[in-house]
Specification:
- The complex is a heterodimer of chains A (about 500) and B (about 170).
- Helix content of chain A is about 75%, strand content about 0%.
- Chain A is built from 23 helices and two strands.
- Chain A has a two-stranded antiparallel ribbon with strand order 1-2.
- In chain A, strand 1 and strand 2 form a beta hairpin.
- Chain A is globular and about 70 Å long.
- The termini of chain A are far apart.
- Chain B is mainly α and about 170 residues long.
- Chain B contains five helices and no strands.
- The chains are: A mainly alpha (about 500), B mainly alpha (about 170).
- At the A-B interface, helix 8, helix 9, helix 19, helix 20 and helix 21 of A face helix 1, helix 2, helix 4 and helix 5 of B.
Chain lengths: ~500, ~170
């Protein structure tokens, strides 16, 4: 219960200063707005804010970024329910039932169950984070470079094989990310790698450029080329807004089940919120009594309550590996890690000893942020609905201007804008041919760390590669890695074999 | 025999090309190994090898099937989008690209506001806006607002004249 003690002494003392409260509010508001706007996700927003946060103190900046991350999850549900265009991956499932509810004039209760469910799940998950993070941090202190490298290999395998429909495409995306991560001066020997004689590449390619290029520019090019004819209709918020007694009765269990499914998924390196939200949806569908089961597909409130809770619990869960191990398990977490690195702070087990104010302030701000978001999203939901009426061309124009600004502000060099465009083209091709982008982002951020741990492991063990197999922890991690890579392919083969007449 | 190269095969060739460029660059690195025998070449070599291998596998996997008539009905689970993707509108793609390229070549002379207005309006055109004059005016106001917001936040952005308001 060390966690609770630290939370109340250090954490809230830090988070409740007027400046940090203000940053949390700015983050939550910005995050909600971004989550509501279709086509912009939390990863882009956090990346966009990186250059701006350089002039803020680290604690305030990270509190704001966490607010954005959280807020985007709350706001994303508004878009998927009223517009049927999920703003981010975790809201895809809520669109299934939520949009049907809105069409049937039950948009209000759908939005309420999503917001209250997110609040409940976020709060429970934050309590779990408070209690578990320090314990896990003490455990991970015992991990040496050998185990850390094995853990990173496992992360690589999980994000590339589990996401998307083709493990091969995931692995290619990962390798491209790792390759981009190599560009620049290599830290140990001071040698420039893959710079092609260009001085602008010596520092490597900035994560801001990659994230903006892939998400903002790539997405805009794709929309312009393929999706101009798509016209979405915003459902109006007619009918009663608040949840009825019946709605409450049907929602509270899915909220809790969603939390139970979402949180563990966030903590393991399986790439964020898609999996737990889908799992929660199918669980609710299976567990529902027969008369409710008929409602699924036509607007069942359980199908919004469960996945939204799972979504928020998973987002909080991703903070556990990020803070205790320094390993990001989703694109947004990877960019958050880049934010830590910007201040020369390395998340990991030592963070709890070296920067207690930062960690506990951040965790305490999550409790505060959850309350802020509930207020921002329920009574003020009408305000956000107005955002959905921004004409689409202007929305994308604005996003692209912000993206170019983020890339240009780094060094005032047009070369970064060229890189941004090239990465945008890459994002366009990846989107068109269904390559997942999360492995690329994770590879880019974790790759250089993995190389460092690998070389450290090698120098401790005189270059003996077998250490990865003789250390029990590392061996088990590598066996799990192998299983992740082989089992899905095997199951697919078997399925194809069984399906053959 | 392969009659045509599919889009995915072009990607596979691109991946192989990146692998080859990496391999060529690696040969130019000095082999200053640390005392454990792991130098700056090791990791790049592993990644280059991985790219070459996965590129080849993707190339082979995405061969156009010999019987497209039967394939169409039992949709290939690996490329469900191939048959659903609507026809691309390359004119709009070019407009968006032109806007981005104009912006990067003009930003240092015209400044953030004017170059940004061109970019924002160009993207509006690429997304088939229905109200061009409104979008042009709003593009200018939006970018001007952003310029001052971020100048106030301490970000250094180029103006038309040093210290100017646009």
């Amino acid at each position: 219960m060390d966690g609770l003690y630290n939370l109340f002494t250090v954490g809230f003392a830090t988070a409740l200063t007027p400046m940090n409260l203000l940053w949390a509010l700015v983050g939550c508001t910005l995050g909600t707005a971004i989550g509501v706007l279709p086509g912009v996700g939390p990863a882009v927003t956090v990346a966009l804010l990186l250059p701006v946060t350089q002039s803020i103190d680290p604690t305030g900046a990270l509190i704001m970024l966490a607010g954005v991350y959280y807020g985007a999850m709350f706001g994303g549900s508004t878009t998927s329910i009223l517009l049927n265009t999920p703003g981010e991956a975790g809201s895809i499932v809520s669109a299934l039932e939520g949009n049907k509810m809105a069409k049937a004039g039950r948009g209000g209760p759908a939005l309420s169950t999503a917001a209250i469910g997110s609040f409940v799940a976020g709060s429970i998950a934050t309590v779990l984070l408070t209690v578990l993070a320090p314990l896990i941090a003490t455990l991970t202190l015992k991990l040496g470079p050998v185990e850390m490298f094995a853990l990173m290999v496992l992360t690589f395998a999980a994000v590339s094989a589990v996401l998307g429909n083709s493990p091969l495409k995931g692995v290619i995306s990962l390798l491209i990310g790792l390759a981009i991560g190599l560009i620049g001066i290599e830290q140990q020997s001071g040698q420039a790698r893959f710079t092609f004689g260009s001085a602008a590449l010596l520092d490597g390619i900035d994560i801001v450029v990659i994230a903006m290029g892939l998400f903002a520019i790539g997405e805009t090019l794709y929309t312009a080329t393929y999706e101009n004819h798509l016209k979405a209709r915003v459902e109006s918020l007619a009918g009663r807004f608040w949840m009825s007694k019946e709605d409450w009765r049907r929602s509270w269990k899915p909220w809790l089940r969603g939390t139970a499914i979402g949180f563990p998924f966030g903590t393991i390196p399986a790439g964020g919120t898609e999996m737990p939200t889908f799992l929660s949806y199918s669980a609710e569908r299976k567990l529902a009594p027969p008369e409710v089961q008929k409602e699924f597909g036509k607007g069942a409130i359980e199908g919004v309550a469960g996945p939204e809770a799972a979504n928020n619990a998973a987002v909080t869960g991703t903070l556990i590996p990020l803070l205790t191990l320094g390993i990001p398990t989703s694109a947004t977490a990877a960019i958050m890690l880049a934010a830590f690195q910007q201040y020369n702070i390395a998340p990991g087990p030592l963070l709890f000893d070296t920067n207690p104010e930062l960690v506990w302030g951040l965790i305490a701000s999550l409790y505060i942020g959850n309350v802020m978001l509930l207020i921002l999203n329920l009574p003020l939901v009408g305000l956000w609905v107005q955002l959905l009426k921004v004409p689409r061309p202007l929305l994308y124009g604005g996003i692209v201007v912000l993206a170019t600004m983020g890339a240009y502000a780094l060094r005032q060099n047009w070369f970064d804008l060229l890189l941004l465009y090239i990465v945008g083209l890459m994002g366009f091709v990846m989107r068109r041919y269904d390559f997942p982008v999360v492995p690329l982002i994770v590879g880019l951020i974790v790759g250089p760390m993995a190389e460092k741990f690998f070389r450290r492991a090698m120098s401790i063990n005189q270059g003996d590669l077998t250490v990865f197999l003789t250390h029990p922890v590392s061996l088990s991690l590598l066996i799990i890695t192998l299983a992740i890579l082989i089992v899905p392919t095997y199951l697919k083969r078997r399925q194809n074999y069984l399906n053959k007449p | 025999m392969l009659k045509r190269v599919t889009g995915e095969q072009w990607i596979a060739l691109g991946v192989i090309l990146i692998g080859l460029i990496m391999a060529w660059q690696i040969t130019g690195m000095s082999q200053s190994t640390g005392y454990a025998g792991i130098g700056p070449r090791f990791f790049p070599s592993v990644i280059a090898a991985g790219l070459l291998l996965t590129g080849v596998i993707l190339f082979i996997q995405s061969r156009p099937s010999k019987h497209p008539e039967t394939e169409d009905k039992t949709q290939d689970p690996d490329h469900p989008l191939d048959y659903e993707t609507p026809h691309p509108n390359w004119r709009m793609f070019s407009i968006a690209s032109a806007a981005l390229i104009l912006h990067m070549s003009l930003i240092s002379t015209l400044g953030f506001t004017l170059a940004g207005t061109i970019l924002c309006f160009g993207i509006c055109l690429a997304l088939e806006t229905e109200n061009k004059i409104r979008d042009l005016i709003l593009s200018f106001l939006l970018v001007l607002g952003l310029f001052h917001l971020f100048k106030w936040l301490g970000l250094n952005l180029p103006a038309l004249i040093t210290g100017g308001v646009i």
